[in-house]
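Problem: given the chain below (210 residues), write out its structure.
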Amino acid sequence: MIRKKILIRLNEFHFLNPKWDYTIDDYPIILSNDDLILNKKVIIPIIHKVKHPEDYIACFYIDDFQFERFWNNPRRYLKFLSSYYAVIGSDFSIYTNTSLPVKLYNLYRNVVLTRLWQDEGINVIPNLSWPIGQLSSIYTDPYCKAKTVCISNIGLNKEEKYTFYKELHEIDKHLNFNHYIIYGTFDNNEINYLLLEKTTHIKQYINARK
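Solution.
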């Protein structure tokens, strides 16, 4: 039984899906998504339990080990995810100081789950992530059709944030998304770096409760 389950997962995720379009590097291309009306919806980590999930947007901006199960058995959680107003795509970490194979594997997991959830009719806001200071098209090509993306700046120091916003402007020149949701922490000095006309800032949930 265990081998059968592993085989099913391998067939689904480790081989090209004939129904999907792929980048030149064989990453699934995420479908175009509508600009969801946030309506002051609260973004909460997926591990937080709420009575009325339809009033919330769930995110994966937490430690990777806390949501590995969504990758290991993705179809088990489809009903659970669909109960939320929307879900921000998974955020398996793409740290600057990790090895390239780890970065690329986590990128693959993020875009595969996002595309799977889209296919299942879940309202997904793609989560755009890249190693700060190492931006390349391999990290952005899977999102080329998206209209709205969410990006987290959690854990970045002052210097990294400057590079983050510099690279965000570079991304905007090439992909020109309609709307950016930036989730994390902010200060007044960051105002000069932002794409104000199409950016929504959402404070990290633990800070928003203080």
